[in-house]
Amino acid sequence: MNHDEFITVAHEARDWVVNGQGDFLREAGDGATEVVAKPDRGNTWTCATCGAEAKFDENDRAFCPQADDTLPTLDDLEKATGEEHDQLVARIREDTVRDTIVYAQRSLQRALHHADLRGLEDAWASLTTLHELHDKGYVEFDAPLEESPF
Ligand SMILES: [Zn+2]
Q1: E strand segments, the chain
Q2: What is the pLDDT of residue 59?
Q3: 72's torsion region: left (phi>0), alpha (psi -120 to 50) or beta?
Q4: Residue 38 confidence (pLDDT)
């Protein structure tokens, strides 16, 4: 399943035909809209596939934390049963562990260099997930980084 489309708010303006009190009568012209505000990170973005709240990578690109190439959280693992549980466990691979570490490091960099507190929250969330999975024995291998971003 793709988790690469998101639902969030955009503000549009529309011309109405109104009466003297400003009450709506009908749409003016062809009903075309003008974009007042495009979607931005300040609003919540949710995955159009599974409804999970999206996260943002270091390029400010939204991604779904439930996508197959991200680590599940311990909370999700403990709530899931049977086949669903097996699918979550299958997402714990060397590459997803490494990606999570890299994501945390970049989030931390963002927090340090741009005084972006959200970067700190993202880093904290990622490292907490990793730590909990490791603690419970789901992550058994080391995933060394090729080079430190610092
Ligand atoms: Zn999703």
Answers
A1: 6-7, 11-14, 16-18, 24-27, 33-37, 46-47, 55-56, 62-63
A2: 81
A3: beta
A4: 84
- Render the burial of 48-72: b for 16+ CB within 10 Å, e for the rest: eeeebebbbeeeeebbbbbbeebbb
Q: What is the pLDDT of residue 146?
A: 56
CA–centroid distance, 44 to ligand 1, in Å, is 14
pLDDT over 80 (residue 148): no
Taking the model in full, what pTM does it have? 0.64
State the distance from the centre of ligand 1 to the C-alpha of 138, rounded, in angstroms. 22
Which are the contacts of 1, defined by CB distance < 8 A and separation ≥ 6? Answer: 49, 50, 68
Is the model's pLDDT at 28 over the cut of 70? Answer: yes
Mean pLDDT of 16-31: 89
Measure 68 CA to ligand 1 centroid, in angstroms.
9
- Distance of CA 144 from the midpoint of ligand 1 (Å): 28
d(CA 103, CA 126): 8
